[in-house]
Amino acid sequence: MTNIDTTRQPNPSITGGAGGGSKMKNLIVRTLTGIIFIVVMIGGILYSPLTTALLFALITVLSAWEFTGIMNRQEDVELNRFITTVAALMLYLGFFGYTMAISPTLAFLPWLVSMVYLMIAELYLQRQRPIVNWALTMMAQLYIALPFGLLCILRTGSDLELYQLLHGDGAIAVLAIFVFLWCSDTGAYCTGSLIGRHKLFPRISPAKSWEGSLGGAVAALAASQVFNYYAPVFNPLEWAIFAIVVVFFGTWGDLIESLLKRQIGIKDSGNILPGHGGMLDRFDSSLLAIPAVFIYLCTLAVL
Predict the structure, then answer these.
(1) Which domain holds residue 232?
(2) For residue 4, is it within any domain?
(3) Mind listing the pLDDT tens digit for each residue in 146-155?
(4) Same domain membership, residue 131 and residue 185
(5) Is the pLDDT of residue 102 over 90?
């Protein structure tokens, strides 16, 4: 008697077509999201200091909310998600108020009040790991709100020496940070996909390669000279160093978020940006690149 295989075999042409259609749809969604994201970022940064402040206030809130949600996935971690996010916003607005001379001596008081409350609250809530809760609450402030707050200083030119260094055009410096990061990411992806062989940091991010990182650095350096041509705020060497600082610290920022996600056991920090993941997935590189650039520009300003 002949054995008949009753297992239904899929039609390769059908499954291939469905898979191809799904990939194409994801690519279209990812591309449209990316275009809208870039337009909003460039428009918000260049239009005025107020639009820049509003843009990054929103980014601060969404990123802090996402961060606290991720941290609360850990066993025995119980962050007050709402107040920690509000505290991050208050710290950011403190920087904005200070740079705009809106009650500069009092600008940080709302943040201080919220932090004092969060510290004292742990005494009464009887949670399992209060020290971890304190540490992660403070991390949300330093990891997210502080870098974006520094952008207020760069954008408004409230610091006289930075204002003189940037010739009163802080928007160019802020925009350059993100353009260099975008160019670095694109260059790294293309180069790594084509010739990437040697892993950069396999323990944390197996997909990254040394070849890709080099390609990203070359792309950012090329972009720096475009900035030098159209916005000669710095000389060519200073622009090149600016780009290298962004690439190096942006890569470390990306790896830090990769380590964070690996520890928690998640792939993406969120899904607020279709095809691109969460806010931390999009801004992880900038969270370390911004403080590094700020240090670099302050160094140039005093030399």
Answers:
(1) 168-303
(2) no
(3) 999 999 999 9
(4) no
(5) no
